[in-house]
Amino acid sequence: MKNNFREHVSTLLLIIGIQTTLSAKILAFLPIPWRSHHFVYRSLIGGLAARGHQIDFYTPLPIENGPPNLNQIQVKDRLDDASGERSLTCFTLFSDATNFDRLQVYTELINSDKKYDLVITEYPLASEFSAYLSHKFKAINVAVMGYLDHPWTNEIAGLPDNPSYMISYQAKTNDRMSFGERLFNTYTLVSMIALCYWETMTRQQEFADTFLKYEGWEGRPKLTEAISDVDLILVNTHLSMGYAYPKAPHVKEIGGIHITTTPEPMSKELKRFMDEATHGVIYFSLGSVVDASEMLKDGKAQIMINVFKRLKHRVVWKTQPGLPEVNEKNILTSHWLPQQAILAHKNTKLFITHGGLQSMVETIAYGVPTVGMPVFFDQFKDVKLMTTVGMGLQLNYNNITEDSVYWTINEVLTNPSYRLKAAKQKALFHDRPMKPVDEAVYWIEYVLRHDKVLQPASARMPFYQLYLLDVLAFILLSSLLILYILKKIIRAVRLIFSEPSDGCPVKKKVE
């Protein structure tokens, strides 16, 4: 009996010891102020905290009632939105020196004497701002990305783009492209990489050398090298949310990590409104980033209201200040709504969406047909995916009419094929060996144990090596040299055979 007790105690102490050994000191520097991004962050941070890791979480949107091993540092300075097409192109929110200087909490952090085993940052939106954190703290570098369909993000991943079938975030097509679409895709690839390498990163390097100084900064690598030196990339994508592409070993998909089995509860009014919807509910939301009042100006909001009035379905509409008041019995409006709870409700028949990434993830996860109204950025690509798989239709919000909106909504509601295709995507989404949060935590702990084993050499190569430009240049120059030598040899041979063997001039015969 005593021996058994000792064995149990020894086993318990061993487990505690292993847990203590595996418990890491983690810095999560995620200052992006967009709520849709923080859905992903919070799920990841929560999963790591549940495993006993000690986390310093720098965020503008703290988690309420966080666990004791989660230390949250609120980033009070709200970062300016990316200004200018150039900044959006290269996914940088820090396009001028003032933004580097304003975030005082960053300066305090990078000059501190804290110790971390692992650093989590968002790429590529804040990559130039946070790339040097892992160098400063000599820590493992983990990046969280929203997508992997931009030339610059593929550069970071060490995965060369193939524009013949890997579509850019700017594309409005699927992976079966025509010649013209492939031509545009190729142009996007070349122009984005060139712009990010030779213009944006040059400016960011100057800003970093001016404002991001700390002890030992003189020996750090170039900014592009620091950005590429990532041990693990967690991407908020999944096969059900995109197309089948090859990926580097250190790229792991965690799409839908924020999807929960217990969505935030509805208000009593909303729940009653949806429960009593005999013919079902249409959910209309343009997300948190798009300015709905601007998008639905020039009478577009009234068009939507007129269409909703004609329907027998009830409508739940996420509105914003600046939109006209709605007093229809079948329309419920609110500035905030629990989107997952609405999409999970049995009476939800249709989601009218702008096609943002998180909205796309959620509508697929809950198998709800869609009508997409994309506005900018990757929304066109996301909505195109939904139409390609057959779970919805697209509207051009610039040219909507009451008849076109009514026909599109009615088509998706009455044609059962859209709901069947949505159910198929839902099944694909949930068919995984483990939950996304468990997979994310597993791979983070994996690189804690094994460091850089997943990182391919391509992630550390300069672009001219990655794309074999030096090899192509060598082959081209060698070919030109060989052709030049052959030309000289042929000319010499011709001269030799065109002269008499005795060296005397040949006399012409006179008749």
From TrEMBL:
The keyword Isomerase does not apply. Its EC number is 2.4.1.17. Signal peptide: none annotated. Its main location: membrane. The chain crosses the membrane at residues 12-34, 464-486. The keyword Transmembrane applies. InterPro entries: UDP-glycosyltransferase, UDP_glucos_trans, UDP_glycos_trans_CS. Keywords: Glycosyltransferase, Membrane, Transferase, Transmembrane, Transmembrane helix. GO terms for cellular component: membrane. It comes from the Eukaryota. It is found in: Membrane. This is UDP-glucuronosyltransferase. It comes from Nesidiocoris tenuis.
